[in-house]
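= Protein in question =
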Amino acid sequence: VAGLGNYGLRGTRHSVGMAVLDQLARQLAVAEGWRADRRCCADVVMATAHGLELMLLKPRRFMNLNGLSIASAAEIYSFRPENIYLVHDDMDKALGKVAIKLGGSARGHNGVRSCISALCSNEMTRLRVGIGRP
């Protein structure tokens, strides 16, 4: 599960994907376990939920380059694109509304575009979190 955003700009609506992962890590009681993985330029933590083992990943890059971190992690940890979930902001949704998207285009989102390009696939599932148009 990868939270897209701008690593140095936490707390902004554009980095809501990372905020969602922080909250998920707290709920799964692994928030103290985040560690920097220099091989993929990301913060990672392992968690278990409903019998599934999860890796939570927050790229340490700007949004337009998030895909490089995710593709590196996919190679290192042997993840296929269809097993990757992207959590990202969506300006076309009202603040706080969420939607699941199964594959498809980036819909103009540069972070998703970066992931599609770096993974050479558009099969990632996306959790789109509404931020509205501020």
The domain at 2-130 is CATH 3.40.50.1470 (Rossmann fold). Residues 16-27 form the longest helix (12 residues).
